[in-house]
Write a structure and sequence with these properties.
The structure is a single chain. The chain is an alpha/beta fold and about 190 residues long. The protein has one domain. It is about 25% helix and about 20% strand. It has helices spanning about 25, 70-90, 130-150, 165-170; strands at about 1-5, 15-20, 35-40, 50, 55-60, 95-100, 160. A hairpin with a 2-residue loop joins strand 4 and strand 5 (about 55-60). Helix 2 (about 70-90) runs parallel beside helix 3. The chain is globular.
Length: about 190
C-alpha cells in the first residue's frame, strides 16, 4: 500500500510505503481477474518512508531527521513478499512475477549524465547483470520460490516466474536518445 507523503518536504517527492499492508484498491478486485502480472523494481529507487505496524520503520533516500536510513533491498523485499501474500490469499487464477528489467544507462546513472545510445543488442556474455540489478533479480527469484512453496498448499492458484532479466539486459536501448531525460536537461 502506498500514499503520497504529506507536503512537509515537497522537494523530496516522498511516498509512504506500508510494507505489511495490502492496497485494497487492487486486492478488493483481485477475485475478478483470471490473470495477474506483477512487474516491479524501478519504482523502488525513489525516496520512500517505510511503515510497518502503522509506524515509521525507516526511509530510503529521504534524509529525514531521526529516521533510520534503510537500503532499497529492505523495502523491496518486504513489499514484494506482501504482494505475493495478497495473491496467495485472494487469487485463484494464473499469476506471473515478471523479473526486473536492468537499467541501460552507460556513462553513469540517468541523473548523472548516463545515456542510452547503444544501437545494437549486447551479445551473449558481453554483459552480465551486476550490482543493484542483480540483487533485485535475486530477491525476486527468492521470494517467488518461497511463494511457490506456499502455493502448493492452495488449490486453483497457479504462479509462474517470467524471468526476462537476461533478455532485457541484452536489449540495445531502454530510453531512446533525448527521451530518456527531461527536455530541459542539457
Amino acid at each position: 500500500k502506498t500514499t503520497k507523503a504529506a507536503p512537509t518536504y515537497p522537494e523530496c517527492n516522498l511516498f509512504n510505503l506500508y510494507l505489511d499492508e495490502y492496497d485494497s484498491k487492487w486486492t478488493s478486485q483481485i477475485n475478478r481477474l483470471d490473470y495477474l502480472v506483477i512487474s516491479s523494481g524501478h519504482w523502488f529507487y525513489r525516496p520512500v518512508i517505510f511503515y510497518e505496524n502503522e509506524t515509521i520503520s525507516g526511509c530510503q533516500y529521504c534524509a529525514l531527521p531521526n529516521t533510520t536510513q534503510l537500503p532499497l533491498y529492505y523495502g523491496y523485499t518486504k513489499a514484494l513478499r506482501t504482494s505475493l501474500r495478497a495473491i496467495l490469499e485472494n487469487f485463484k487464477g494464473l499469476a506471473f512475477l515478471r523479473s526486473f528489467s536492468p537499467q541501460h544507462f552507460e556513462g553513469g546513472p540517468w541523473d548523472k549524465g548516463g545515456d542510452c545510445v547503444r544501437t545494437r543488442p549486447y551479445r551473449r556474455n558481453e554483459t552480465i547483470p551486476e550490482g543493484a540489478d542483480l540483487k533485485i533479480h535475486d530477491i525476486q527469484v527468492e521470494e517467488f520460490r518461497a511463494a511457490e512453496e506456499e502455493m502448493k498448499k492452495k488449490q486453483g492458484l497457479r504462479l509462474r516466474l517470467m524471468d526476462t532479466t537476461q533478455a532485457m539486459l541484452l536489449r540495445p536501448d531502454g530510453h531512446p536518445g533525448r527521451y530518456g531525460h527531461l527536455q530541459t536537461a542539457a
